[in-house]
Design goal:
The longest helix has 12 residues, at 29-40. Helix content is 32%, strand content 23%. It has one domain: Spore Coat Polysaccharide Biosynthesis Protein SpsA, Chain A (Alpha-Beta Complex), CATH 3.90.550. Strands 1, 4, 5, 6, 7, 8, 9 and 10 form an 8-stranded mixed beta sheet that branches. A two-stranded antiparallel ribbon has the order 2-3. By secondary structure, the protein is of the alpha/beta class.
């Protein structure tokens, strides 16, 4: 599931709609962020705020399922809980962020493999830092459904760091997100 319900306050406008050119392709940031997920999964759940323009911006990308997080304005925890609720019967969840256009499909597939092999928590690591996406086994369902506020699941990952299985990612894209316009320019320079 991709969390895309934020309000881009630090960016100044909806960053997920910002045009970005990577590998010669110009598209909204959200499109670049979704493409690697569609290489790994047959269907990708995208959690958005009510009346989000992202569905239109994603255009003809196939196999997207849109979930509106009614309480998105209250923080990432509410959005994550809405995504888990929409997929409550899943055996686990890979949680990604919509502002990570350099995330490689190999990192998504690697985390998925760890989860399928029984990891309670999983994530890639690059240069000694935990990256994204982060996977949660079904045993975390109730905690994820109860999330509130803006911290997302950070507290769960910190508390249960001893249960986290990781692998060495080969790309810093597992760490690279877009928060301010300068990050977008840096991404263009890195990912071109």
């Amino acid at each position: 599931m991709i969390l895309a319900a934020g309000f881009s306050r630090r960016f100044g406008t909806d960053k997920l709609l910002a045009p970005l050119t990577l590998a010669g392709v110009t598209a909204p940031l959200i499109v670049h962020s979704l493409r690697p997920w569609l290489q790994v999964f047959d269907e990708v759940c995208v959690v958005v705020r009510p009346q989000s323009p992202l569905r239109a911006a994603a255009g003809d990308l196939p196999s997207l399922r849109w979930v509106e997080a009614e309480a998105a304005a209250s923080g990432m925890g509410h959005s994550l809980a809405a995504g888990v609720a929409a997929n409550a019967d899943a055996q686990g969840w890979l949680v990604g962020l919509a502002d990570m256009p350099l995330l490689p499909a190999s990192a998504i597939a690697g985390v998925r493999s760890l989860l399928e092999a029984g990891a309670p928590l999983a994530a890639p690591a690059y240069a000694g830092r935990r990256g994204h996406p982060v996977a949660f086994a079904a045993s975390y369902r109730d905690e994820l459904l109860a999330l509130q506020g803006d911290a997302g699941a950070r507290q769960i990952v910190q508390r249960d760091a001893h249960r986290l299985q990781s692998f060495a990612a080969t790309s810093s894209g597992v760490l690279t997100d877009i928060d301010v316009p300068a990050d977008l320019q840096q991404t263009i320079n890195t990912g071109a």
